[in-house]
Specification:
The chain has 280 residues and is of the alpha/beta class. It contains twelve helices and eight strands. Helix content is 42%, strand content 23%. Strands 1, 2, 3, 4, 5, 6, 7 and 8 form an eight-stranded mixed sheet that branches. A hairpin with a 2-residue loop joins strand 7 and strand 8. The longest helix has 15 residues. 44% of the residues are buried. The structure holds S-adenosylmethionine (SAM).
């Protein structure tokens, strides 16, 4: 669950502030919830050749580390992210588990990557936040060598992912300051339109583009659900300055709204996403 569409400066501020800190705090539960997507990307790396992999918008580093573990001495995986706190968490994890992944804290849209220095570029929900999508993917294309593979996952529409907006719909009557979603602006659902994704990749020099819908059974453990619903996304933003009674009423509204999803100790839902592939 991410933040609503905002401009690049706002995105930078958000991922270095509230959203970044919330993702660091909720790292374990988010990694558990997003594990099926990590597995998809790791599998894609395992079937390729060439061991120089870039993970864009790598956040706290779970996918980067999983790929680095897979590659071992045969390659290297570098994660790039605009968020200081998330990169700090990623580096600490790499050090703790002595996995030789490395991390860059920078804006992937404009970072001066060494040209043609990657065989594969991956991302788990980290490429929907640029303010110039064509410019960003053209920059990534320059970083990729000819024939390199691009593989990322992105959300389809909010309408196809009702679980993702359950919290904000339930909390809206109590929190009038919830930031509105702006369709098409940078943010979680910026790539809802698959044709738009295809046009962006085509215009930025990628070839053999495939934008495939995937429906992935996912879950958030019931014990983590309130943290998930109150710390992240638009509700997390709106609750920042809320008083205790408002927090308590919101928590109750969220408990009721998520109840239909609960089964065997977890909230279960289908994540409606795109699995996007292309070649440099
Ligand atoms: C939804 S999170 C996904 C994080 C990570 N890939 C994961 O699956 O745990 C999106 C990430 O994209 C990063 N991001 C946003 N804009 C970026 C940019 N212009 N350059 C690099 N990273 C960016 C955010 O800081 C955030 O970590």
């Amino acid at each position: 669950m991410d933040v609503a569409g905002q401009t690049d400066d706002e995105q930078t501020a958000l991922w270095n502030g509230l959203a970044g800190r919330a993702w660091v705090e909720a790292q374990e539960l988010l990694d558990q919830a997003l594990k099926p997507f990590e597995d998809l990307l790791v599998e894609a790396v395992s079937t390729g050749s060439g061991g120089r992999v870039l993970d864009v918008g790598c956040g706290t580093g779970s996918t980067t580390l999983a790929v680095a573990r897979l590659l071992g001495a045969k390659g290297r995986c570098i994660g790039i992210d605009i968020s200081d706190p998330m990169i700090a968490a990623a580096r600490a994890r790499a050090e703790q588990e002595t996995t030789p992944a490395s991390f860059i804290c920078a804006n992937a849209q404009i970072h001066a990557f060494e040209p043609a220095s990657f065989d594969m570029i991956i991302s788990r929900f980290g490429v929907m936040f640029f303010d110039d999508f064509v410019g960003a993917f053209a920059n990534l294309r320059r970083a990729a060598q000819d024939g390199a593979r691009l593989r990322f996952v992105a959300w389809r529409s909010a309408a196809e992912n009702p679980f993702m907006t359950t919290a904000e719909r339930a909390a809206a009557p109590l929190l009038p300051n919830i930031p509105a979603r702006r369709p098409d602006a940078p943010g979680q659902f910026a790539f809802a339109n698959g044709d738009k994704v295809r046009r962006i990749l085509d215009a930025s020099g990628w070839k053999d583009i495939e934008v495939r819908p995937i429906d992935v059974p996912s879950n958030v453990a019931e014990k983590d659900l309130l943290t998930y619903a109150t710390k992240l996304g638009p509700v997390g933003q709106a609750l920042r300055d809320a008083d205790e009674p408002t927090r308590a009423r919101t928590a109750e509204a969220l408990r009721v709204a998520f109840a239909p999803y609960i089964e065997n100790g977890a909230a279960r839902y289908t994540a409606a996403c795109w699995l996007v592939s292309a070649r440099g």
